[in-house]
Design a protein that fits this description.
6 strands; 60s Ribosomal Protein L30, Chain: A; 50% helix; 2-methylcitrate dehydratase PrpD; four-stranded mixed β-sheet
Length: 448
């Protein structure tokens, strides 16, 4: 297949094919290993909470067993189903890594596809790592070419873009040549999907987006391996990725800036690890709320009202409709409910998976306080480069206290260090039995 003049697809495929394990700088390798560790820990925490069971039951119905493994589980699956389940589990508890400029979760799509194919072809850990990094670099750049525009159009970038990352990672490990890897990109376009409607409540679609992207990108690579041709101009065509999902082609200067240093500048290094298991947009506010409650020893009864400031594009995602965001009906809805999240952080003075146990959704103190949270937009916040947040409380005794987080923890200007990531991994293992960890180590080899 000829790519025509789709210079973006050409550049990304050429980069992915030229990348060798030896050419990857050591800091990139070390960061990728930490991201894989983080993703595995999040998946293990999801399995420990039984979040794998309904997905596994649905996929198992009518499906033959296979030879491929899923993080934390003992049963075996087909290659495509393993990719799906690993993608869902990494993304299931809203605790996986994020490329902030691209506004997507790269590991949840690149790693599952790479794991499944690596197990299929018997790839080495170095080959698996290179394929994963190639997928991360591709998805991060595609999202960063139109930052925020996919979501503004109603599409979840992890689902819409993740299929291309999965196709790249899988295609590398399958040994596709240039023409066939370009075809895989063209085929993957037909599977790009993921609606942002989950923000209005009532479903678990968000985690499915990662699983489907991993599975469909892998499938696109398998189809291309058999000689099937994909659409030409998959990224820049009239009905390609950007025109269909991001309301137009990216700016030429931005394209040049993101593509000219492929293989020299590494987006993998700026993928952020989440400190809190909730929508990353909320993290500045969660941190500010914890700081206020702890430093001033506030109790819920002290607080008369709360004002929260976030970037204006965040308001419709995390603060509307108010009634649902103040009293979410499920854990998945709570993770995108800013009034509830801020109230919970003020009440608990911390925020981890324990603050999202189902019983906390009915906590009277949290719900009462959430009803007194007012969310407003602050156009001065530098979004989406960073996810800022500010929380101010007015106390019954007349005090007005506030704290502003300009740069969220995990951003490039304020990164978490390896010790933080290792501690998070250990915390995520808290509810996981040793057998699950052993199975994860068996699958991930020296990468874990």
């Amino acid at each position: 297949m000829s790519s025509g003049n789709d210079s973006i697809a050409d550049a990304l495929v050429d980069f992915a094919l030229a990348l060798t394990p030896e050419a990857i700088p050591q800091p990139v390798i070390e960061r990728a290993r930490l991201l894989i560790l983080d993703g595995a820990g999040v998946a293990l925490a999801a399995v420990a909470r039984g979040m794998d069971r309904p997905y596994a039951a649905a996929i198992r119905a009518g499906a033959a067993s296979g030879t491929h493994r899923v993080i934390g589980r003992s049963d075996l699956w087909s290659m495509r189903d393993a990719a799906f389940l690993n993608g869902v589990l990494i993304h299931a508890i809203e605790f996986d890594d994020t490329h902030m400029e691209a506004v997507l979760h790269p590991t949840a799509t690149a790693l599952p596809a790479a794991l499944a194919v690596a197990e299929h072809v018997g790839a080495s850990d170095d080959e698996l790592l290179a394929a994963y990094i190639a997928g991360v670099e591709v998805s991060a750049r595609l999202g960063a070419l139109a930052p925020g525009r996919f979501q503004a159009s109603g599409f979840h970038p992890t689902g819409v873009i993740g299929c291309f990352a999965a196709a790249i990672a899988a295609g590398r490990l399958l040994g596709l040549d240039r023409a066939r890897l370009l075809s895989a990109i063209g085929i993957a376009l037909s599977t790009a999907s993921g609606s942002m409607q989950f923000l209005q409540g009532g479903g678990i679609g968000k985690s499915l987006h990662a699983g489907w992207a991993a599975q469909s990108g892998l499938t696109a690579a398998l189809l291309a391996a058999e000689g099937l041709a994909g659409a030409r101009l998959p990224l820049t065509g009239r009905h390609g990725l950007f025109e269909s999902f991001a309301r137009g082609l990216p700016d030429a200067d931005r394209v040049d800036a993101k593509l000219r240093n492929l293989g020299r500048d590494w987006e993998t290094l700026v993928v952020a690890v989440k400190p809190y298991p909730a929508a990353f947009y909320s993290h500045g506010c969660i941190e500010a709320a914890i700081h206020l409650a702890a430093s001033h020893e506030l109790s819920p009864s002290d607080i008369a009202s709360v004002e929260v400031l976030v970037p204006p594009p965040v308001l419709p995602k995390l603060a509307e409709p108010f009634a649902a965001k103040a009293a979410p009906a499920s854990v998945s809805e709570a993770q995108f409910a800013l009034p509830f999240l801020v109230a919970r952080a003020l009440v608990a003075r911390r925020f981890g998976l324990g603050q999202l146990d189902p019983e906390t959704l009915a906590d009277p103190a949290t719900l009462d306080l959430a009803r007194r949270v007012v969310c407003r937009g602050d156009a001065g916040m530098d979004f989406p480069r960073v996810y800022s947040g500010e929380v101010s409380v007015t106390c019954h005794d007349g005090r007005r206290l506030g704290h502003r987080v300009e740069v969220n923890l995990g951003a490039i200007e304020r990164p978490v260090d390896p010790r933080f990531i290792l501690a998070k991994f250990r915390d995520n293992l808290g509810a996981s039995d040793p057998d699950r960890l052993g199975r994860a180590r068996s699958l991930l080899g020296s990468l874990l």
